Amino acid sequence: MALTGKSAVVTGAAGGIGKGLSEVLLRNGAKVALLDVNESAGQSLMESLNQKHGTGSALFLKCDVESEEQLRAAFQKAVETFGGIDILCNNAGVMNETAWEKTVSINLMSVIRASYIALEHMSKLNGGRGGVIVQTASMAGLGPFPSCPVYTATKSGVVGFTRAMAVASEVSGYGIRFNALCPTFVQTEMITNISGKLGQFTHLTGMAVKLTEKLGILSVSEVAESLLELVTDETKNGEALMILTQGKAYMQFPSLSK
Ligand SMILES: NC(=O)C1=CN([C@@H]2O[C@H](COP(=O)(O)OP(=O)(O)OC[C@H]3O[C@@H](n4cnc5c(N)ncnc54)[C@H](O)[C@@H]3O)[C@@H](O)[C@H]2O)C=CC1
Ligand SMILES: CCCCC/C=C\C=C\C(=O)C/C=C\C/C=C\CCCC(=O)O
Known about the structure:
- By secondary structure, the chain is α/β, with parallel strands linked by helices.
- The chain has a single domain (7-242), classed as 3-Layer(aba) Sandwich (Rossmann fold), CATH 3.40.50.
- It is 45% helix and 17% strand.
- It contains eight helices and eight strands.
- The chain has helices at 16-27, 39-53, 68-82, 100-122, 149-172, 189-192, 205-215, 220-232; strands spanning 7-11, 31-36, 58-62, 87-90, 131-136, 176-183, 240-244, 247-250.
- An eight-stranded mixed sheet has the order 3-2-1-4-5-6-7-8, with helices on both faces.
- The two termini are 29 Å apart.
- Bound molecules: 1,4-dihydronicotinamide adenine dinucleotide and ligand LO7OFUQM.
């Protein structure tokens, strides 16, 4: 899928990895709706992206992904502005073992919620153009991150949802591919401010720090560039792309149904 003339929705777009995903999509010719709860960061990012990539190429929409109503309104506005949606990046996420129910709500429930709303606009069965949905999961969805069990559960859930939806979409004829990015640690606000966020696992802070030293830390742009192959390569469906500092690999899973 070439990106010129395509339109994308990115959640959690105002900072960190979401900002990087949005920039790479714009650089490659797509228009991007930037969804985020952070209004000031989202507005100023939209202004700078429109200066760089052309007026009207980026649209900021204030949206809390936990709200079905706000998500529906944002998708509707994106469709009205850009004429349709071809790409959804479900990227908004938090790591907070203290507020663990919120972590489940944002990282897993909202990914499912946004994917289902996107189907209403993107599925060929609903008159949409088809396209691709890419979730920002994590290495934590592949190997356990013991300092953050609930975060690990949400990301494992996202990988499972993505793989099941890929097959469901294929056999149903939605015309939508589902893939997941699974990066190791990335240099963003999320890893720099964890005080109070590990809850009953605060005593495992040192273990988390050691893991960052062992695995290394990716830059946002290294993750963002990896989005391109999942979006443009039409053969990629149901993939979990592991991104490490040493390189990338598509995960192999056991096939139990054949
Ligand atoms: N930083 C890391 O080491 C890694 C992060 N990830 C995942 O990448 C994704 C992005 O994380 P980062 O950029 O690192 O985090 P970040 O904290 O830098 O940025 C997250 C963005 O999401 C927005 N956001 C948070 N809650 C929201 C909500 N309810 N509705 C709408 N927007 C919301 C924030 O305002 C912020 O702009 C997350 O899903 C995270 O789990 C995956 C692997 C590693
Ligand atoms: C010292 C600061 C750590 C803060 C961590 C905060 C957020 C991390 C988010 C992630 O998504 C982390 C990504 C990768 C690590 C997860 C699992 C590693 C699996 C290790 C293994 O191979 O067993």
